[in-house]
Design the sequence.
């Protein structure tokens, strides 16, 4: 049986009050491409419902539905009739998973290391640059890596994401 944790629920609402406006219409799930390809196994409406009910263990420990499958495409946010900021709420839950030491996908750690090293989650490789030129997309300005490093150090980023050994 799942425990209802009111404190957790209230914290989520306090962090993003739009959570309170959800009336469970399911528009988010019907517009979500990940819900479509997983045949409903991934379900943003359910994540919001569990957040409203304070079902912390399901969200943080069991991770059912698997919140990491969200690709942050923002379709659900665009379509939600109640202007619920689903992706912002999901971000808070993901942060909570990491800060509570629960497992999270290696690929996110790899991206975090890339941000530390390159200032970008996906570094610009020559093939990416060439393809962007072919598609006549604007040049991506590179971030000031030294400033990013300073910010990450000031916010104790490595410790927060549980990466203790990172190549310089
Ligand atoms: S679309 Fe908005 S109101 Fe409807 S279930 Fe999803 S979050 Fe709730
Ligand atoms: S942002 Fe995430 S939950 Fe929303 S539609 Fe895209 S994949 Fe689905």
Sequence:
């Amino acid at each position: 049986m799942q425990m209802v944790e009111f404190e957790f629920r209230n914290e989520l609402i306090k962090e993003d009050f739009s959570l309170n406006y959800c009336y469970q219409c399911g528009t988010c799930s019907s517009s979500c491409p990940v819900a479509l390809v997983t045949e409903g196994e991934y379900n943003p409406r359910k994540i919001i419902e569990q957040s409203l009910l304070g079902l912390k263990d399901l969200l943080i420990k069991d991770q059912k539905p698997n919140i990491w499958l969200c690709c942050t495409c923002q379709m659900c946010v665009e379509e939600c009739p109640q202007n619920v900021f689903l992706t912002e709420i999901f971000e808070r839950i993901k942060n909570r998973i990491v800060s509570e030491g629960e497992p999270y996908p290696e690929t996110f750690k790899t991206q975090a290391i890339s941000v530390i090293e390159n200032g970008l989650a996906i570094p610009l490789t020559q093939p990416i640059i060439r393809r962007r030129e072919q598609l006549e997309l604007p040049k991506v300005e590179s971030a000031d890596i030294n400033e990013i490093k300073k910010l990450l150090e000031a916010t104790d980023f490595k410790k927060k994401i549980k990466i203790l050994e990172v190549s310089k």
